[in-house]
Write a structure and sequence with these properties.
Blueprint lengths: L3 E4 L4 H11 L3 H9 L7 H5 L15 H14 L2 E5 L4 H16 L3 E5 L12 H5 L5 E7 L6 H8 L3 E5 L13 E3 L15 H17 L7 H10 L6 H12 L4 H9 L9 H18 L3 H8 L3 H35 L8 E6 L6 H12 L3 E6 L4 E7 L6 H7 L6 E4 L3 E7 L3 H15 L8 E4 L1 E2 L7 H7 L14 E6 L2 E6 L5 E8 L2 E7 L6 H4 L4 E12 L2 E13 L2 H4 L3 H14 L7 E2 L2 H9 L7 H13 L3 E4 L4 E4 L13 H4 L5
Parallel strand pairs: 1-12, 2-3, 2-4, 4-5, 5-6, 7-8, 13-14, 17-19
Antiparallel strand pairs: 8-9, 9-11, 10-11, 14-18, 15-16, 16-17, 18-19, 20-22, 21-22
Helix pairs in contact: 1-2, 4-8, 5-8, 5-9, 5-13, 8-9, 9-10, 9-12, 11-14, 12-14, 13-14, 14-15, 21-23
């Protein structure tokens, strides 16, 4: 799939200044500047333990929630926590349940069955605990359950904690705690559901114990990362502190099952290794298994639960592969990719994995995708995944007449629909996408932090970049670009040769590059120079550490064919200095004269090439040019060596 590479130059002066003030490499300083971090905010951003937490009482209705929960604890009233079946809902339930238990509450939890009940609060679910429960607290759900919570309020008091976007009406409750409320002035609107539950625990603990509450941050970090919320602001603090001190027995057993080191767990490990295993419970069986794991106080039972989740995850992977292949056949058979949005449906596809299949289809085609599973009663459950700049919930709202229910975020949503409405729904969604997605948005883009020579990538720099973790939404791992590389020893590796591996030389030093699922490029790059985007990492092999370039995208290098090389631009400058040794006084000279003079010194020069070189040299302030007055001036030689990568004109060679 063709991808647009976006590379913007860095202010070299600001980069070197930040590097000096923080005693870090210019590469790391450049990455920080790209993230909007400056000298004033850098110390806080790089703080290993994160910054302090915001006052939980800044959230609307928090004081009312604390007062009602305190009364329930004092009266020994039964509190029921109503959670969700994903990792965010599981961790939210665990954090609030453990906190209430420690505060002496009579508490139980209830998580709905994904297949039998679906997302959110339902009247049939409430009926299961309606007789004894005096206080219902929702976590990671409830903000749009208006009629259901109105029904519950006839029998018990209700507190809603959620992080999803409210509708026009708030549910009937003692307190509705949601940072996305229109009247909320909380400094971080992007808390996960577990983050909101954690703030409630903070407020309770401070009120009752008069102590700061920082317990269970490893569990809060797990849910925060797994829910793919921005890892900035308070979320960043939560995850940094949580990953720095993992003590939950269930998480530790999952780490052991996955053969990871607890001391080097990153947000990436949560997103791609631990989170999916915990999610497998709610997808295929019941999320209670995940809650039990995180509540476990016994190593033996925690190990058995972790093993069971690992097996469920393997089964889930097999199901995903089967449904994905069936969906791909339907997409190609029906030419669904001729439109700007895909709606694909199948009979009795497991509803617990259709969201993953939708994500896979987006990765494959870069089109917003809806995957619907139709049960034997003709009821469809759908999962939606979107692309950048297209709000999938906005699209569902426009097609609401075809739907029974829907809800979610801009990038991911769920729905229910009668099978008789699916074709109408598909047509309406395709029309909406056609009117609201410009063609330019259908080309995925990759933002590159810096263009580097391979020798600029060293172990110290890679170690330094870990200070910028945790990486995730709004704080992505830095990506770098190497240009004009000649690969050698090219191999297809892995089962069926799906991966790519090669070496390359730079300054007489050999480097290794590895591209997951890039084996198809092996024959294409043979005997060709390439440009590639990568993440650097240290690989441990037989107790030896070496640098590895993890490839993210590859293009055949066109830069030397279409543009003069770095070396040639330097030669043009030196030749100009030789021809016109006039110091720093402006030289009034015609462009055609410059070309004529340069042709006597350089072979193959033309007007396009010389104009390009002069514009690059002017942009990095080596010379100044006034094309209108036909003036060229050599500027004072700078103290710092000028980097061509600070020229936007020069960087465009990689963005073709």
């Amino acid at each position: 799939m063709k991808k647009r590479w976006i590379i913007s130059p860095i202010d070299q002066k600001a980069q070197l200044s930040l590097a000096a003030s923080l005693n870090i490499s210019p590469v790391t300083a450049g990455v920080l500047l790209k993230k909007g971090v400056n000298e004033k905010t850098a110390a806080s951003f790089l703080n290993k333990t994160g910054t302090s937490f915001y006052d939980p009482l800044l959230l609307p209705n928090m004081q009312a929630a604390v007062a009602r929960i305190k009364a329930a604890i004092y009266k020994k009233e039964l509190i029921t926590i109503f959670g969700d079946y994903d990792v965010d809902g599981i961790t939210s339930t665990v954090v609030l349940y453990k906190t209430l238990q420690e505060l002496g509450a009579s508490v139980q939890y209830y998580l709905p069955d994904r297949q039998l009940e679906g997302y959110g609060v339902h009247k049939a679910s409430i009926d299961k605990f309606i007789n004894k429960t005096k206080l219902l607290i929702t976590v990671d759900c409830g903000i749009r359950s208006i009629s259901e919570l109105e029904y519950a309020s006839d029998y018990m008091d209700v507190i809603v904690t959620d992080h999803h976007l409210p509708g026009d009406e708030l549910p009937e409750a003692i307190a509705v705690i949601d940072p996305k409320r229109a009247d909320c002035e909380y400094p971080d609107k992007n808390l996960a559901g577990v983050g909101v539950a954690f703030k409630l625990c903070q407020a309770l603990w401070q009120n009752i114990k008069n102590e700061e509450f920082t317990r269970y941050l490893d569990v809060v970090a797990l849910g925060t990362v797994a829910d793919i919320v921005p890892l900035t602001n308070e979320n960043r603090t939560i995850v940094k502190r949580g990953l720095a001190n993992i003590t939950n027995l269930g998480i530790l057993e999952l780490i052991n099952i996955c053969k990871l080191d607890k001391n080097t767990i990153t947000a990436g490990h949560i997103g791609f290794v631990l989170g999916p295993r915990l999610n497998a419970a709610g997808r295929l069986k019941h999320a209670d298994m995940g809650v039990e794991l995180l509540l476990s106080c016994d190593s033996s039972s925690a190990h058995k639960l972790a093993e069971a989740l690992d097996k469920e995850n393997s089964f889930r992977q097999q199901l995903v592969e089967t449904v994905f292949k069936e969906a791909m056949i339907l997409v190609h058979k029906n030419n669904y990719t001729n439109n700007k949005l895909i709606v694909v449906c199948g009979k009795n596809w497991h509803p617990g994995i259709i969201g993953i299949v939708a994500s896979r289809l987006v990765d494959e085609f870069y089109l917003p995708t809806v995957v619907i599973s139709i049960d034997n009663n003709g009821v469809g459950k759908g999962s939606c995944r979107s692309i950048k700049n297209f709000n999938i919930v906005g699209a569902l709202s426009a097609c609401n007449d075809n739907l029974t229910t829907f809800g979610g975020h801009a990038m991911a949503a769920g729905l229910t629909i009668e099978s008789s409405q699916i074709n109408f729904f598909r047509d309406n969604m395709i029309k909406y996408a056609a009117a609201n997605i410009p063609n330019s948005d259908l080309i995925p883009s990759i933002e590159v932090d810096q263009v580097l020579s391979p020798q600029a990538v060293n172990k110290a720099m890679i170690a330094e970049l870990t200070l910028l973790e945790p990486f995730g939404v709004d704080n992505p791992a830095p990506l770098f670009l190497c240009g004009g590389i000649q690969p050698c020893n090219i191999k297809k590796i892995g089962q069926k040769g799906v991966h790519l591996k090669f070496t390359f030389l730079d300054n007489n030093y050999s480097y290794t590059a590895l591209g997951w699922n890039m084996g198809k490029y092996a024959d294409i790059i043979e005997n060709n120079k390439i440009d590639f985007i990568f993440q650097p990492e240290i690989n441990n092999w037989n107790d030896k550490k070496y640098i590895q370039f993890i490839l993210k995208d590859i293009k055949l290098s066109q830069s030397d064919k279409l543009y003069p090389s770095r070396e040639f631009i330097g030669i043009v400058y030196l030749t100009l200095k030789h021809i016109y040794p006039a110091g720093q006084k402006p030289i009034k000279i015609d462009l055609s004269q410059i070309i004529t003079h340069l042709k006597t010194h350089l072979v193959g020069i033309d007007e396009k090439t010389i104009t390009y070189c002069l514009n690059v040299l002017a942009e990095i302030q080596i010379i100044s040019i006034n094309w209108e007055k036909k003036l060229l001036k050599f500027l004072p030689i700078p103290k710092m060596k000028k980097d061509l990568n600070t020229s936007n004109i020069f960087l465009k060679r990689y963005q073709q």
